[in-house]
Design a protein that fits this description.
By secondary structure, the chain is mainly alpha-helical. It has 14 helices and no strands. Helix content is 81%, strand content 0%.
C-alpha cells in the first residue's frame, strides 16, 4: 500500500484530506452552535447550480460553485437580517430556486447532467494545483481564525445580545461564519461530494458534542475526530480498494453509532 503514495494524485489527495479533516469540522461546530443546519442543504443545491452554470459557460466548476454559494449566503443573510425572515425558510426557498435554475441551464445549454451531478460524489484525485494549494491555505486560515477569535466566537455562540453589549461585533462575526460555511461546503463537495459531505463537516462535531464539556473542548475534539476519520478512512480505502469518500463516511458513521450506543448504555 505504501507504494501507492508514489502516485502524485493519491499523495495530493491524502495531504489535502488531512488538512480538510482537521480543519473543516470547526465549521460543523459553528453550524451546530448557531443552528444553521438547513444552510448546508441550500449550499449543496447552490453548488449544483454553480456547476451547471460553469459547464454551460465552459469555465472551472470549482470557481463557479464557490461564486454561486457566496452570492446565496450573502442574499440569505441580508434578507434574514433586514427583513427579519426565518433563515431556515429562506434556505428552503433558495434551495428550491437553485436546483430549478440548475436544471434549466442543463436543459437550455445541453449540459451533460452526469457532469453536473458528479459534484454529488466528488473527485478527490483530480485536484489541480490551484485547488490543492487553495484548500490547504483555506484550512490553515480557518484554524487561525478559530484560534485568534476564540473568545469572541464563544461570546457570540453563548448569547448574541450579551456579545453585542460586551463590545463584540456580533453581526460581523455572523457574516464571516456564513461565508466560511459557504467556502467549506463548496470545497468539501469538490473533494468528497455532496452526498458524503456530513461525514467530515458534521459527524465529528456531533460526536464531540456528546462528550465535550466546553466550547473549546468541542472544537478540539471535533478536529481530532475529523482528522481521524479522514486519515484512517483514506488508508482503509487504499487497503481494500474502495472509494475514499465512501469509506470515510462508513467509518465515521460506524464510530458515531458505537459511541452513541456506548453512551446510552
Amino acid at each position: 500500500m505504501v507504494e501507492l503514495f508514489s502516485y502524485t494524485p493519491i499523495l495530493k489527495g491524502f495531504i489535502v484530506l488531512i488538512f480538510l479533516g482537521f480543519a473543516f469540522p470547526i465549521t460543523g461546530v459553528y453550524l451546530l452552535r448557531m443552528n444553521l443546519l438547513p444552510l448546508r442543504f441550500m449550499l449543496m443545491h447552490g453548488a449544483i447550480l454553480g456547476g451547471a452554470l460553469s459547464l454551460a459557460m465552459e469555465v472551472n466548476p470549482f470557481g463557479g460553485t464557490m461564486a454561486i454559494n457566496l452570492i446565496l449566503v450573502l442574499l440569505m443573510t441580508w434578507m434574514s437580517r433586514s427583513l427579519k425572515a426565518d433563515p431556515g425558510q429562506l434556505s428552503a426557498f433558495f434551495m428550491v430556486l437553485s436546483i430549478s435554475l440548475a436544471f434549466i441551464f442543463i436543459y437550455r445549454f445541453q449540459v451533460p447532467a452526469k457532469d453536473t451531478l458528479s459534484l454529488m460524489w466528488g473527485s478527490l484525485y483530480t485536484l489541480n494545483n490551484y485547488e490543492f494549494v487553495g484548500t490547504i491555505v483555506f484550512s490553515m486560515i480557518l484554524v487561525l481564525f478559530q484560534a485568534y477569535y476564540r473568545h469572541q466566537l464563544r461570546a457570540v455562540f453563548f448569547d448574541a445580545d450579551i456579545a453585542r453589549t460586551s463590545g463584540v461585533n456580533e453581526t460581523g462575526f455572523y457574516y464571516i461564519i456564513i461565508l466560511i460555511t459557504a467556502i467549506t461546503v463548496a470545497a468539501a463537495m469538490k473533494l468528497i461530494g455532496a452526498l458524503l459531505l456530513d461525514a467530515i463537516l458534521l459527524l465529528p462535531a456531533l460526536i464531540a458534542s456528546y462528550h465535550a464539556k466546553s466550547y473549546k473542548s468541542m472544537v478540539l475534539w471535533s478536529s481530532f475526530w475529523g482528522g481521524l476519520f479522514a486519515s484512517i478512512g483514506f488508508l482503509l480505502s487504499l487497503l481494500f480498494e474502495l472509494p475514499a469518500s465512501s469509506t470515510i463516511a462508513v467509518f465515521a458513521s460506524a464510530v458515531f453509532l458505537i459511541l452513541i450506543l456506548t453512551k446510552k448504555k
